[in-house]
Design brief:
With 645 residues, this protein is α/β, with parallel strands linked by helices. The chain is built from 21 helices and 10 strands. The strands form 2 sheets. The protein has a 6-stranded mixed sheet, with helices on both faces. A 4-stranded antiparallel sheet has the order 2-1-4-5, covered by helices on one side. α1 crosses α2. The chain is elongated and about 125 Å long. Bound molecules: adenosine-5'-triphosphate and magnesium ion. The site of magnesium ion has 4 residues, from α12.
Length: 645
């Protein structure tokens, strides 16, 4: 197996022509600082859109938190200078005893100044501490709001995208990146945004303070941060590309983890003993991920060490310079204390500012991927002026030389597929595995559009209809029907989620799908939770699940019934009951059924036989059998059942 390079390299993620910009979604021509500015814009929009009130409150608190320490620094300077003056002058005659001494200190102007400035400094420091608690609370609320907002956007999009999105591994990779960070990144974006604001205000304050007394000091401090900023921004982009390159491996590890942890494969894993193989594959993927992380860490460590040395060197030079000035009498003691504090704080804030900008840059790369998912173009869309869906269908449905290849495969699955389904007709579609039957069903439900030819309903191309309006009129049972961890009533109700699950029409659909007896045996009837994944409910058998799926299909006022292998999990008696039911259900509407079961074939008035995506035989089951072609080869036993008129 060829191993993908995992070290951070510009070409780690393959370019994708269908996307704007480059593979990491960032225009390479844009300077890094502009990308960081874009990041700010993105983050601001997100912070504001999620909760404007909380955004304002947090901004105000952060600004106060950044500015107040400067006031504390100024107060300390004044206190130290006043104390130095007091030390030089001394008190005239210090009073005996603490209370008397305190009164005397407050009376004397020199000592009063010392006391007042210390108290002012302490008050400011206490306020900062109170603000910190308040800010933590507001920040937590805001972070949750941002996270929920991001999830809201993502969910809305996921419910709206084409089915193709879920059947394309590249899209799933993109989604994996977004999903794996969707919980943490938005909170990170917010944290970085406010850290940026806090550091910018705090650093700005320090620089202004220094500039008032020593402009050169301010300039040196500001310039010292620049190399770190540029280096770490550059690294941030590399990190994202590196992370993106790891997505397939992370998904692979995740897949084998799911195989071992979910119930789906538990039986086969035990019986066939492939658990060890899953562990190996998981372990191999994880060890490659670890190896990639190690390479990355090593590289980063060296760069960080250099940056630390640079910071230390700048601090040393500034300290030397200040000490020289103090010795020469050009600085007061209070000023020295303030400068030392300012430089220390300034350097800390430069570091915080760089970290915040880099975090925002990272977040922007995440947001870019997120927006790529949000911008996912829909291929199956409604025209500007959709035609009304024919109800009832009077002429029927026509597949007119339909061709189809799944996106990104280039391999035609259907080609030149033509057949008609008359109004009120019962049509069975048969063919060997992989012949394209389920694909035909997806096209008929307009989950995909044909790549060639057209599908007409009463002479109207399906593409001229609003897909949602059309789907609303189709009662469908998919081959891989859903088994939902909901109550029995909800499992049916979601087939047409209007009104309430307790409505009589839900019970009626259950009865039509032959669920009466099953429901009677459920402990809480239709209110019984099905499945045992979320709570200790009742686990129906596969055939019972299939009947719930059928009830879902029967719930809505469908113009067309489409059933893909509706009896694959049903026993013979239930199948007979279903056939009788289908006879009633399809009396006034066309029905298309995919099935390999002879009884179902006999029920249909007409059968079309698919081979490699095209119709090779057509007629009633008896005639086809007599012809001795593909149908007779596939279903030699079909003749045993009578063809119901
Ligand atoms: N999501 C997909 N992406 C790419 N190819 C697909 C996808 N789904 C199915 N195919 C391919 O399309 C062809 C037809 O598949 P389809 O599921 O329509 O067959 P079928 O006739 O329903 O088979 P079966 O009797 O096994 O249900 C197969 O070759 C399959 O590999
Ligand atoms: Mg199928």
């Amino acid at each position: 197996m060829r191993r993908r390079p995992l070290t951070p390299r510009a070409d780690d993620a393959a370019p994708e022509p269908s996307r704007r910009g480059t593979e990491d979604g960032v225009d390479r021509s844009s300077p890094r600082l502009r990308a960081a500015a874009d990041a700010c814009r993105h983050a601001l929009r997100l912070a504001w859109a999620s909760a404007p009130g909380l955004a304002l409150a947090q901004t105000l608190l952060v600004a106060l938190q950044a500015l107040l320490p400067l006031a504390a620094m100024l107060a300390l300077k004044r206190a130290v200078d006043a104390a130095a003056l007091l030390a030089r002058q001394g008190l005239p005659a210090p009073a005996e005893g603490m209370p008397a001494l305190a009164v005397q200190l407050l009376r004397e102007p020199a000592s009063r100044a010392v006391a007042l400035w210390f108290v002012a400094g302490a008050a400011v420091t206490a306020t900062v501490a109170v603000l910190r608690g308040l800010l933590a609370w507001v920040a937590e609320q805001h972070a949750m709001a941002v996270s929920d907002h991001v999830h809201g956007l993502l969910h809305a999009k996921l419910l709206e995208v084409d089915l193709a999105f879920f059947e394309d591994s590249r899209e799933q990779e993109r989604l994996h990146l977004v999903q794996s960070q969707a919980m943490t990144r938005p909170v990170g974006v917010l944290g970085a945004l406010y850290q940026l604001l806090r550091s910018a205000i705090a650093l700005g304050g320090v620089l202004v303070l220094l500039a008032l007394f020593q402009p050169l000091l301010a300039l040196a401090l500001a310039l010292a941060g620049l190399p770190a900023l540029l280096l770490r921004l550059h690294r941030s982009r590399r990190r994202f590309q590196w992370r993106r390159g790891l997505a397939p491996l992370e998904r692979e590890a995740g897949y084998f983890h799911t195989l071992m942890s979910s119930g789906g494969a538990a039986k086969e894993a035990r019986l066939n003993g492939f658990g060890g193989f899953c562990r190996e594959r998981f372990g191999a993927a994880r060890s490659r991920l670890r190896e990639a992380r190690l390479v990355w860490r090593r590289r980063v460590l060296g760069e960080d060490l250099l940056l630390q040395l640079l910071t230390l060197a700048v601090a040393a030079v500034l300290l030397l310079w200040m000490t020289g000035h103090l010795a020469a009498g050009a600085l007061t003691l209070g000023s020295l204390v303030m400068y030392v504090q300012a430089v220390q704080r300034g350097q800390g804030q430069v570091g915080n500012l760089v970290t915040a900008i880099v975090d925002l840059h990272q977040a922007a790369l995440f947001l870019t991927t997120f927006e790529e998912v949000l911008r996912q173009p829909a291929r199956v869309t409604a025209p500007v002026n959709p035609r009304p869906v024919p109800a009832p269908i009077r002429e029927g449905i026509v597949f007119d030389r339909v061709g189809f290849a799944y996106p990104g495969t280039g391999r035609p699955v259907l080609h030149n597929l033509s057949f008609t389904l008359g109004a009120g007709e019962r049509l069975a579609v048969v063919g060997a595995n992989g012949a394209g039957k389920s694909t035909l069903v997806k096209l008929l439900c307009r989950l995909y559009d044909p790549t060639a030819g057209r599908i007409l309903v009463d002479g109207i191309d399906l593409r001229e209809l609003d897909p949602a309006a059309w789907r609303q009129r189709v009662g469908v049972l998919f081959q891989d029907f859903g088994r939902y961890q909901l109550t029995a009533a909800e499992n049916i109700w979601i087939g047409d989620p209007q009104g309430a699950p307790a409505d009589a029409r839900v019970a009626a659909a259950a009865a039509r799908a032959g669920l009466d007896e099953i429901v009677r045996h459920l402990p809480q009837g239709l209110d019984t939770p099905l499945g045992r994944w979320l709570r200790p409910g009742v686990e129906p058998s596969m055939g019972q699940w299939q009947r719930f799926a059928l009830a879902r299909a029967f719930l809505r006022e469908a113009q067309l019934l489409v059933l893909d292998e509706p009896t694959s999990a049903l026993d013979a008696r239930t199948q007979q009951a279903l056939i009788r039911l289908l006879q009633r259900e399809s009396a006034e509407r066309p029905a298309l059924v995919v099935s390999h079961r002879p009884e179902m074939l006999a029920w249909a008035r007409r059968v079309i036989v698919l081979r490699e995506g095209t119709v090779v035989e057509e007629g009633d089951a008896g005639t086809l059998l007599r012809q001795g072609g593909e149908f007779a080869r596939l279903y030699p036993e079909a003749g045993g059942a009578p063809v119901t008129a």
